[in-house]
What does this fold into?
Amino acid sequence: MEDLNKYKELVNEHLDKFLEVNYPERIWESMRYSVLADGKRLRPVLTLEACRICGGDIKNALPTACAIEMLHAQSLIHDDLPCMDDDDLRRGRPTNHKAFDEATAVLAGDALLSFAPEVIIRHTPDSVSAETKLEVLDSWLVAAGAHKLIAGQIVDIESEGKQISKETLDFIHKNKTSALFELSLFCGAKLAGATQEKIDVLQKYAQNLGLAFQIYDDIIDIIATTEELGKTAGKDQQVEKQTYPALYGLEESKNKVIELCTEAKEVILSHGLESSLLAGILDIIENRIKK
Ligand code: GRG
It folds into this structure.
């Protein structure tokens, strides 16, 4: 997908620029190591595309798009720590605490958490109103904290090795995964001055994409190899993690992914939000699941 690669390049250029190495070099190097590693950049790409299809200038959304990728990278650094998932491999190379050390990885995550909002505040063009900037910042902070990401993570940790209800599993996915997709689309639309109706449609798309993406991630954890994943395969079963495939089996999980993707495509189309990129991301997930 041409647009996706164009956006990805733009995001990478800006991440590289924002994360200029300062003194003390070790902390900046550690932040750069994880943020600039080869990820899909799905979340910042969604922010830019939401801004474009809502009639905005993507330059206004670039700092926020990068701040969302920094938050995502932070959550991966901390998720991989020995006290959490204890993983050695991420994005095809050693996790941050393996490449540096545990203390540096904790600090790199913490530093990203305060640096990312700084990027929104200092680099969003002045053509964006202070009110919009504040709304974007507020949504970023809500997603990063105990209302969303941390809520999902703590319930996930508490649930390991236990039988949990469908509601609890949905709570984990909604907060650990969908929250960042919702944030990405919300910010892009807000920065374009979108109507509440468009924002609501994009939020529905984000919720479906988030859940489909998480179930897909859990399926490939079972069926793909470590080399294909760039992270340790089979980890969920090893630690008895509660996932869709674990609770409902592979077939039902695949059907759920297809159902969520189909519904998300219908929602954006029926509201006139034409985007080959938003539809294309769902197609990629669907096609991979059908193989
Ligand atoms: C925000 C303070 C604070 C803490 C974070 C650790 C934690 C709390 C939350 C964990 C969130 C987490 C790791 C969710 C998993 C989401 C997921 C499916 C990640 C993989 O995303 P991809 O495939 O990765 O987009 P790439 O590497 O391509 O970016």
